[in-house]
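=== RUN LOG ===
request id: a7f3
mode: sequence -> structure
chains: 1
length: 215
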Amino acid sequence: MKVLVADDHWMIRSSLKHAIGELYKSCAVLDASSYPEAVQTLAENPDVDLMFVDLVMPGLSEFEGIRRLRAGFPDIPIAVISVHEDREHVLHAIEEGVIAYIPKSAEGSELIRALKIVLNGDVYFPRDILQGGRLRTGVPLPPEPRVLPNGGAFTPREDEVMELVRRGRSNAQIAEALGLSPNTVRVHLRNVGLKLQLKERSEIEAYLTGRLPGT
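=== RESULT ===
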C-alpha cells in the first residue's frame, strides 16, 4: 500500500508518517508540503492508494485544493486532516467526496483509531461535530451521515460503478473490470450511498434495479 501525506507543517507530516508506518510496516508513505507538490507527487506515483490532505496549504484555497485533487485523481480516496472542528467544514468536505475528516486536535488514541479505520478502507467522520457539538474523544463513525441533499451529481467513475452494480457485479468483479482496487470500489460505493442517502450496498443495488420502494 502507498499513501501520500500532504500538509504544510513538517511536524504534522512527520507525526502522520510515523503513525502510519507503525500501524502498517509495509506501507510506503510519501509526503508533500503544498497542493502543487501533492499534484506532482501523485503524477509521479500513479500507484498511490490513499491520501491524507490538510485543507489549508499554500497553493490553493482549502476546498479548491480538494476539488483539484479529486478532479485530477478521481480514483484516489482523500482523507482530510484539519484544524477546523465545525459542522459546516465537515459537511462541505463530505460534499467534495472525501472519505474521512480527522480533526488535528484529536487525542493520540483517537487519531490512531481513525487512521486504522481509513487505512482499512472504511470512512471516518466525527459524530459529535456532525451533530453540531465540539469534538470529544472516542467518537465512532456516524451511522447515517446527512450529506448532499437532493442527491447531488455523480462523477463519471461513480456512473461506471453504478452500472456494474446494476448488472449484478460484485465489488471484486467491478474492481477487475475498471482496473481499480477493491478498496477504491468500496469508496465509490460509499460516496454513491451518501448521495442517494442509502447505507447498504444491497439498498444501492435495489435502487438501481428498481426494486427499492419508492423508485
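=== NOTES ===
The longest strand covers residues 2-6.
The two ends are 39 Å apart (CA to CA).
=== END ===
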